[in-house]
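Encode chain A's predicted structure.
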Amino acid sequence: MLLHSRTKLRKPSPPFSAISSLLNPAFFASLSLQHQFPDPSFTSSSPQFDNNLTPLKSIPYRSYPSAESSYRAPSYSNYASLLKSCISRKAIKPGKQLHAQVFVTGFGFNTVIATKLVNLYCVCDSLSNAHLLFDRIPKDNIFLWNVLIRGYAWNGPYEAALQLYYQMFDHGLVPDNFTFPFVLKACAALSAIEYGREIHEHVVQAEWEKDVFVGAALIDMYAKCGCVGSAREVFDKILVRDAVLWNSMLAAYSQNGHPDDCLSLCTEMVSAGLRPTEATLVTAISASADNAALPQGRELHGLSWRQGFESHDKVKTALVDMYAKCGSVKVAQILFERLGVKRVVSWNAMITGYAMHGHAIEALNLFEEMNRVAKPDHITFVGVLSACSHGGLLEEGQMFFETMTRDYNIDATVQHYTCMVDLLGHSGRLDEAYNLIMQMKVVPDSGVWGAMLNSCKIHGNVKLGEIALERLIELEPEDAGNYVILSNIYAQAGRWEGVAKLRKLMTDKRLKKSIACSWIEVKNKVHAFLSGDTSHPLSDEIYAELERVGGLMKDTGYSPSTGSVFHDVEDDEKANMVYRHSERLAIAFGLISTPPGTRLLITKNLRICEDCHVAIKFISKITEREITVRDVNRYHHFKDGVCSCGDYW
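Encoded structure for chain A:
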């Protein structure tokens, strides 16, 4: 029973000085006399305290003969005020002592006092005590229910928040605009879309749908459940919007893979006259990073500085991540070094940025530096293992994988296993990669088997490739790209019957492979190209530039490799198909549209092929250009005929 605490008291901070007078042992002596409530916690053998909570070892219990006559019992307002202070400071120890006192003074079942005690236990993450007290007091107070529902919505178990919500109705209470955000938060944590939609109906019936806080909670719930369209419908129905509501919708787009919509909405928000908050900028900058939209990211960088956020480390960390993902790793490094406080997420952003760009040594050196001042988490090791994978550092990767679990007590997740399978597979250790998958302590996902399938393509392993595809068909049967990879493995091995079989299977399933597309931004306009594309207004000039550069490439020793063309056609036709790949068209357009020496940034939706990788090295040397290509896996920086990946990708 939650009555008394025997915790050794420490001298409180000044805001709790008023508590000391209530904790005087004479006070408890008088209470025992008045209420006939024996308390073994306060016998003569218990430590005694003066008014400053200092132990009075030399003063016996009988040293307070006049306590009963001189003591004035604290009032209801005293307890309410002191509990409020405990709640604001999350001071659980003095709060428990106050709980003991209010019980013996008769205020224990006062609705307001009891509600404050429940609130105290909730904010101090002592939900078992909160619920125990909740069960023993009157429940006709909506605020009491909201407090406990909020506690479970914040700390879990989230199912308890839902159970309490539905129990409210049995007590004749109606949810208010505080109840709904709390219970919707629990729905979001559980991805419980059915309950979420039912509670949305309750919101409409209670006429709270246009409340900005309830609306923000609905948007967040739908976003966490992957229902972005429903989230937008809620947003559109609320005509008077504050920054919190806008930020909720921005986050809904960003978290569900709609970076373009997120950036457009951010522009709309600023145009509506609302000042962006820190959350606005972090979300929008992250969307720019996901979309590799460097110009928009730079605009947001300028906006954040103009709005006075230049000293906010969360904004600067988002900028570090954005510049790294948009190909400007040097700018990311400068911003990282200027951070006032480097949090774990800041270190992770920079380590992951180095990994994406193939700067494995820099990533590992930064990890060692981080290790001296901060504690790495599971995301840190994803970045470290990714750096090892992109850099071909097999021994280092194996060492970090073992160290992570042994020395840091971090259990391997599917992301860690994906990195290791990719590292082993790229290194030609396909059997080891497969055995690692079989020994995984978590269920392998499409990322793990996809890494395995890609490794089989690199090394032409048909048998393991077939196994990987079988698993991938179970996990994502509609992804045509997996069928195409095994088809290419068959083609490499000259097994054209296998190619025909897979193509028929794709036709029967009505699956279409992703079309290779590359794009480049010039003068704030994006120009996209497909393989063999002739739709661009400057198509003739683009192909003429390809012819010119191609001639210079041949003069310096380039010979096309047609191994990446998996069609049963003549070699000349294969060479012609490689020559018209989308990334080459984008580069040719960049060459004729920008001044000499300008760096070109190309983005491709698929993995860059082997021949284009070789060709771009030649182009970078001949044209004296730095060319950066971001494919689906990583960045490739081409300069002076060399790629940052070291031909390992």
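The longest strand covers residues 517-522.
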